Amino acid sequence: MNSALDSMLQTNDARSLAERRHVVKEIIQELVLCGLSRAGFFDYAAFYGGTALRIFYGLDRFSEDMDFSLMVPDNEFDITAYFPMLETELRAYGLNMEIKKREKTVDSDIQSAFLKGNTREHLLLFYPQESFSTGVPRDEKIKIKFEVDVNTPELATFERRYQLLPSPYEVNLFDQPSLFAGKIHAVLCRGWKNRVKGRDLYDYLFYLAHGAKINLPHLRARLVQTGHWNPRERLSIEQLRKLLADRFDAIDYKAAAHDVEPFLREASSLRIWSADLFKQVTERLEAV
């Protein structure tokens, strides 16, 4: 195995087949970031979402998707322009991945693509001492979705961060208050009725536990863009706490915990999830 991949693998203590699947995906995600950096992608776009929080802020859960947003809206942006460099980067490390753009079925500001490769083949690349002849179907695919928002809500702020593996590279990243704004928008707006991604709730607690403050103007811009806030009204931290409290009263916490549990090594904290927990800790929420 490539020495850089071996070094990346050593930082991940995978104890089970499920965790090894996650580790392989996460290393591929970091190879994608390196390839995008080499291709000049971060001159125009920034990384955000749960995977960004995991890689750059130590979020202690596995993450599947990769989310990016252009710094300046551009409806002419074409995600496929970066595919050749990504394919070259992945092949250089021995990975056999196919990259395809997802064709839109509805009008959207999001451009999506999928990286796919054979699960057993890539598990054997990273864990050559194992056979994986049982437990991994021969035709099972690793799938990693990455998305680019071409119509970025205004007032986000960014920072430059660096990684050393697989080789030194630079990433343009939403800073922590802007990342937190995006996560709170997801908590408030993603899902249907009382269904919510447990991953969003888990990340919300992670931000609060680490003293993160929110970029309130950017959150307001996101809410206005999605039709969840009146553009003629300001948004205060007190109003935001009320919006969140109302949301927390409507959530099915058993379903939310079931959503996030496969992404955690230790899930005991999920047992105390309740509206009271989330409303009480939200009193700590502060704006920058």
Plain-language structure description:
The chain is of the alpha+beta class. The protein folds into 2 domains: 172 residues, Roll (Nuclear Transport Factor 2, Chain: A), CATH 3.10.450.620; 106 residues, no CATH class. Strands 1-2-5-4-3 form a 5-stranded mixed sheet. The longest helix is centred in the N-terminal third of the chain and has 22 residues. The mean pLDDT is 94.
- Domain tally: 2
Broad structural category: alpha+beta
- Poorly predicted runs of 5 or more residues: none
How can the largest sheet be summarized?
5 strands, mixed
Beta strands, count: 7
Name of the CATH homologous superfamily of the largest domain: JHP933, nucleotidyltransferase-like core domain
Q: What is the arithmetic mean of pLDDT?
A: 94
Assign a percent range to the helix content. Answer: 40-55%
Strand content: 15-25%
Note the total helix count: 11
Over all CA atoms, what is the radius of gyration?
19 Å
Main sheet: strand order: 1-2-5-4-3
Kindly report the CATH topology of the largest domain.
Nuclear Transport Factor 2, Chain: A
Q: N- to C-terminal separation?
A: 45 Å
Please trace the helix and strand order, writing H or E for each element.
HHEHEHEEHEEEHHHHHH
